[in-house]
Amino acid sequence: MASSIFFSPAANAVTVAIPTPTPTPTPRLVLVRANNASASATATAATPTPRLVLVRANNASASASASGPTLTLEECEAAAVAGNFPAPPPHSKPPGPKGTPLIKPLDLTRRPRRNRKSPTLRSAFQETTLSPANFVLPLFIHEGEEDAPIGAMPGCFRLGWRHGLIDEVYKARDVGVNSFVLFPKIPDALKSPTGDESYNDNGLVPRTIRLLKDKFPDIVIYTDVALDPYSSDGHDGIVREDGVIMNDETIHQLCKQAVSQARAGADVVSPSDMMDGRVGALRAALDAEGFHDVSIMSYTAKYASAFYGPFREALDSNPRFGDKKTYQMNPANYREALIEAQADEAEGADILLVKPGLPYTDVIRLLRDNSALPIAAYQVSGEYSMIKAAGVLKMIDEERVMMESLMCIRRAGADIILSYFARQAAGILCGAKSN
Ligand code: PBG
């Protein structure tokens, strides 16, 4: 910040103006400008646009410095003491359009618009910022060699773990996104009621983590901890015959899954299953295997939301029956998020996540105000697809709505945002495209 003030255009203008071709030691350029400007301003007093005068003043100063000095500092000071001030360029407010009522201005103490009147003031007082460092990019991977487009999520693909994925990570890093979360599309033949493929050390996720860490050692890899991609029932946990999702038995599997991901090199494991007590159990399992430095990002307030629809299409992970309402939260509930947050914090979570994002900004703010932990928000598939679809139909400006939605999630209190827009938005923030 300090250096940007030092090298501001204004500071440069002063240093450039002092060394002129003439040997006179006084920095008269500034005064010369004023004198000449005033002369030309009076000569052209009839000119309607005051901007013209400014242009002339610049030209005048340029020619003055080329043709040598006019007045010394002493002469200028004497003129000022005598009350003989050079006239500044005239400054006038343009009138309103014809028919504008002539009124007596309101007697207002506060006019908040004063602080919004120019781009410089607006950016000086901006309270929230958005940076590629805040983004985590979710990536869908599959066993194939080719990338397969996801119909319900324009611009997203099931990426070939060996090629397409590497390419995507490379491009994301190019615009400053260094954090990724992996979601695997598992072949049906590997799915089972107990989701045992989830802790196969040679499975798609651990294998991909090893490859990514080998190619890009400095990236941060988040993983998803839940059984749904591996469950033949499409649920996040083991389903009992009567349809009950078994809590503690599921956690036993999740611990093996998280340890397998940690062994492969995951930096942050992220339980998205909403079983009770999983954070504490995962912490203990990781520590028992020596993974004390692997973080846990807990999906603290994950709602049973219709906004996950496109994601479930992407992974073919729709529940085969029923819904997820016995473990994911009721969208009508707010206070309940505090119960989840307190449990996760007590059990040792490093990051608390709210999901979905934009429709749940009140919950993001609730956790922000009730925990000192970093808060994450997940702008989920449905939020992404709605903006994309409305953009394609030219009902909204896709880019501007994208940036605004991300900013609003930050304003609500999220430190990081998991978003399918991460690369596109970071590109704009890096100036790849104008905002
Ligand atoms: C499942 C999981 C889901 C998402 C992330 N992890 C779907 C679900 O709970 O059914 C949704 C992400 C999205 O919609 O973008 N563990």
Automatic annotation (TrEMBL):
Protein name: Delta-aminolevulinic acid dehydratase
Biased composition (Pro residues): 86-98
Gene Ontology biological process terms from the UniProt entry: chlorophyll biosynthetic process; heme biosynthetic process
InterPro entries reported in the protein's UniProt record: ALAD, ALAD_AS, Aldolase_TIM
Protein function: Catalyzes an early step in the biosynthesis of tetrapyrroles. Binds two molecules of 5-aminolevulinate per subunit, each at a distinct site, and catalyzes their condensation to form porphobilinogen.
Top-level enzyme category: lyase
Metabolic or biological pathway, per its Swiss-Prot or TrEMBL entry: Porphyrin-containing compound metabolism; protoporphyrin-IX biosynthesis; coproporphyrinogen-III from 5-aminolevulinate: step 1/4
Principal localisation: plastid
Origin: domain of life: Eukaryota
Cofactor(s) this protein cannot do without: Mg(2+)
Disordered, as annotated region: 82-123
Catalytic activity: 2 5-aminolevulinate = porphobilinogen + 2 H2O + H(+)
SUPFAM superfamilies: Aldolase (SSF51569)
Record localization: Plastid, Chloroplast
Enzyme Commission number(s) of this protein: 4.2.1.24
CDD domains membership: ALAD_PBGS_aspartate_rich
Entry-linked PROSITE patterns: D_ALA_DEHYDRATASE (PS00169)
Gene Ontology cellular component terms for the protein in this record: chloroplast; cytosol
Subunit text: Homooctamer.
Keywords noted in UniProt: Allosteric enzyme, Chlorophyll biosynthesis, Chloroplast, Heme biosynthesis, Lyase, Magnesium, Metal-binding, Plastid, Porphyrin biosynthesis, Transit peptide
Family listed: Belongs to the ALAD family.
Gene3D superfamilies xrefs: Aldolase class I (3.20.20.70)
Molecular-function GO terms, alphabetical: porphobilinogen synthase activity; zinc ion binding
